[in-house]
Design goal:
This protein is of the alpha/beta class and 257 residues long. The protein has helices at residues 8-16, 27-42, 58-64, 86-96, 116-124, 145-155, 178-188, 217-227; strands at residues 48-52, 73-77, 104-108, 134-139, 159-168, 192-198, 208-213, 237-239, 242-247.
Length: 257
């Protein structure tokens, strides 16, 4: 499901190119993420864009289309699965869809061996760089307790005070324990909250959690509820003691007499 993002070149990519790039994140989630990136720019929130689990660039390209002057996109992956050609495919896909190499850096490696300084280093070398903060971080790395915890701990120190972290494959039946790790991390870091759950389109294009700091909820919540009103699940949910909106392609309720 593709929704308008307010960024014309991203809208074109979603409608004409997104499905041609191998990957698993949904166009629905990419549409909402694109809207968030535009909202951040309108609010004057400056920072870089980062992703763990970039693969061949489907979601990464969508995020990079939200870059503003002085910002940089950082894609991290082992780039060796399912073959050593993955990195070449990423570069080719970025070039084909209008993301030039000066706008991004691909970091090949395991996040378990990285520090926040390693992640942000390429962005600091950009002419006119906006600094050392990330405003949007998408995490789609290894789906186990150790790695998701490590990736969250890697991302959190880099985040702009009004930044967004998006976590892929939440509530996925193939990874039923992954949310336990995320919920534990959230309880240990009460300054962070699940702002929204983006429902899955199918079992491959899975659900995502959208996180932000508690103080930033007001910057996004009403805007998302208004912008995506037809996709709001009326019941929402209660998650770790607070209301969380649910955005879904088909927000129906069971009919009860």
């Amino acid at each position: 499901m593709i929704l308008p993002t307010g960024t014309p070149r991203l809208d074109r990519y979603l409608s004409e190119g997104y499905e041609t790039v191998r990957g698993m994140s949904s166009a629905f989630a990419a549409s909402i993420s694109g809207h968030i990136l535009r909202r951040q720019a309108e609010l004057g929130i400056k920072g870089h864009i980062a992703e763990i689990g970039t693969f061949e660039g489907r979601f990464f390209i969508a995020l990079a289309m939200g870059l503003q002057p002085g910002e940089h996109a950082i894609g991290i992956d082992i780039f060796s699965w399912p073959s050593e050609k993955v990195l070449d495919h990423l570069h080719a896909n970025c070039a084909k869809h209008g993301v030039p190499q000066p706008d991004y850096t691909a970091i090949k490696g395991n996040t378990a061996d990285m520090t926040p300084a390693d992640v942000i280093a390429p962005a600091l070398r950009v002419p006119g760089s906006v600094g050392g903060k990330v405003r949007f971080f998408h995490i789609d790395g290894q789906h186990d307790d150790e790695n998701i915890t490590n990736d969250l701990n890697l991302a959190a120190p880099l985040m702009h005070e009004s930044g967004i972290i998006v976590l892929d494959d939440m509530l996925h039946p193939a990874y039923p324990e992954l949310v336990e790790s995320v919920h534990r991390w959230l309880r240990q870091h009460p300054e962070w909250r699940v702002l929204a759950i983006i429902d899955r389109e199918d079992i491959v294009a899975a659900a995502k959690y959208v996180l932000c700091r508690v103080e930033a909820v007001a910057l996004y919540e009403k805007d998302l509820l208004a912008a995506f009103a037809p996709q709001v699940f009326p019941m929402g949910c209660d998650l770790i003691g607070h209301f969380t909106m649910v955005l879904t392609p088909n927000p129906r309720l069971a009919e009860i007499d």
